[in-house]
Amino acid sequence: MSLLNPDSALIFWMLIAFGIVFIILAKYGFPVIVGMVEKRKQYIDESLQAAREANEKLAHIKEESESILTQAREEQANILKEAVETRQRIISEAKNKAQSEGGKLLEEAREQIQKEKDDAIRDIRKQVAELSVGIAEKILRQNLDNEQKQNGMIERLLDEVSDIKK
Amino acid sequence: MKTLKYIWVSLLLCLICSPIKADESESKVNVQEIVFGHIGDSYEWHITDWKGKAISIPLPIIVYSSQSGWHAFLSSRLEHNKEYEGFYIAPEGKYQGKVVEKNVEGEEIRPFDISITKTVLSLLINSLLLVLIILGVAKWYKKHKPEDSTPKGFVGFMEMFIMMVNDDIIKSCIGKDYKRYAPYLLTAFFFIFLNNLMGLVPIFPGGGNVTGNIAITLVLACMTFLAVNIWGSKEYWREILWPDVPLWLKIPIPIMPLIEIFGIFTKPFALTVRLFANIMAGHSVILALTCIIFITASLGPVLNGSMSVISVLFAVFMNFLELLVAFIQAYVFTMLSAVFIGLSRVEAHKK
């Protein structure tokens, strides 16, 4: 049966045709397509990986920002508290200082006044003494303007002294 | 199974047809001639008959005679049993339908014949078409980067198709070093598929019975045979020459090695016959079904009309079936080739 007899011409041409087709397609056809599809697959995988990493990073950043915020808030509270304390302290210090200063001033004033008073009193005493000496001088001068009186006086004074000696 | 079915159907049809032909010896319809004329090869491309005259494309005949050297001429020179430069188409005998010449003793001998016959021309057209299609698709990929969006339309379809063959058949059947064989198997798949499809197109560029010709399938199977045996691993040859069977099966008479060695050759043989028989049978059945219309023409208008309807319905059904077969046979050939290659790449699984 001729159907089952492979024809030599056909085998010859088939070898040539299939050989050429195979060489062309194996070089410029299928590897290009398959290679591209595989590259694309790789690209998609890489993109997915990158997206996942970016998401993770984003989540991380969010967490970080949250923690930074809470930290900042804590710090703010701390600072406020400290400020309040400082204010209180400054005020109380100022009060204390003012009190002590006032007290000191008063004391000084009092001392001054005392001194002035003492001075004044000493002055007055001195003047009173001078005055009384003057007056006494005048009175003595008046009383001892004659000999008799001077003698009587001396007598009396001597009596007195002797009385004291006894 | 499918092959058997086709052969049965075609045989049955031939049996049905032959008595009718015998009854009407004057009948102009010779089914056998039509069917075998189509699935066989010819030196011209017969397109149709118009007003009793055959319209056909003459094809170049290239022969080398041991007596007179190379000859090349158009097949129209040999029409109607004419003789040209000592060559003629044998009307009968051993070389019926082939170009022959007479040697000095007057015996019919066959020159070395590499004519562009109908099948060769279909083969060349289909090969060119395949190269154009695949290179056309590949061009898209050369112009684009992997970051670009995926192709649409025909290129997208071809990408899906190629990757299906690449991943589902080749990668899964061969295993890890499938990349070396992928270009061959992809080429074989699309070569067979395109030739199958073009065989189903009834008008000029198509209609050739390429993959239904044993020479074509033989070459394809030989390619697979080479791919299997040239790069066969050590373990593959060990399994053939010293298989893991009881010793008495190997010594003194090496029964198992002989069977295994025989097996090396039955594999490509099975590939050859499976593809060839499937496609050939499909073409035969469709043609035979179409011929029913012309056979019943002489049986009266009622019978002829009803049979025509049945014939067309069957032919449409068969065409759909053949469309499926075109894919399945390409798939099966590629898958079996991949499986055989995969088996030749085995590594020692013991120890």
- Tell me about the biggest sheet of chain B? 3 strands, antiparallel
Can you count the helices of chain B? 9
Shape of chain A: rod-shaped
Total number of helices of chain A? 2
Query: What is the helix content of chain A?
Result: over 70%
Cα-atom Rg of chain A, whole angstroms?
65 Å
Record keyword descriptors for this entry.
heterodimer; A: 166 residues; mainly alpha; B: 351 residues; 2 domains; three-stranded antiparallel sheet; 8 strands; 59% helix
Description of the structure:
The complex is a heterodimer of chains A (166) and B (351). Chain A has 166 residues and is mainly alpha-helical. Chain A has one domain (2-119). Helices cover 93% and strands 0% of the residues of chain A. The model of chain A has no long low-confidence stretch (mean pLDDT 89). Chain B has a 3-stranded antiparallel β-sheet, with no helix packed on it. In chain B, strands 5-6-7 form a 3-stranded antiparallel β-sheet, with no helix packed on it. Chain B has helices spanning 2-23, 31-39, 118-143, 153-174, 182-200, 214-230, 234-241, 255-295, 301-344, and strands at residues 44-50, 53-58, 60-65, 69-74, 87-89, 99-102, 108-109, 112-113. In chain B, α1 (2-23) crosses α8, α2 (31-39) crosses α8 (255-295) and α6 packs parallel to α9. Chain A binds chain B through residues 2-15, 17-18, 20-22, 24-26, 28-34, 36-37, 39-40, 42-43, and chain B through 36, 39-41, 96-97, 112-117, 119-120, 123-124, 127, 130-131, 134-135, 137-138, 141-142, 144, 146-147, 150, 158-159, 162-163, 166, 182-184, 186-187, 190-191, 213-216, 218-220, 223, 280.
Compose a concise summary of this entry.
By secondary structure, chain A is an all-alpha fold. Chain A has 2 helices and no strands.
Secondary-structure blueprint:
The complex is a heterodimer of chains A (166) and B (351).
Chain A (H helix, E strand, L loop, with lengths): L7 H136 L3 H19 L1
Chain B lengths: L1 H22 L7 H9 L4 E7 L2 E6 L1 E6 L3 E6 L12 E3 L9 E4 L5 E2 L2 E2 L4 H26 L9 H22 L7 H19 L13 H17 L3 H8 L13 H41 L5 H44 L7
Antiparallel strand pairs in B: 1-2, 3-4, 3-8, 5-6, 6-7
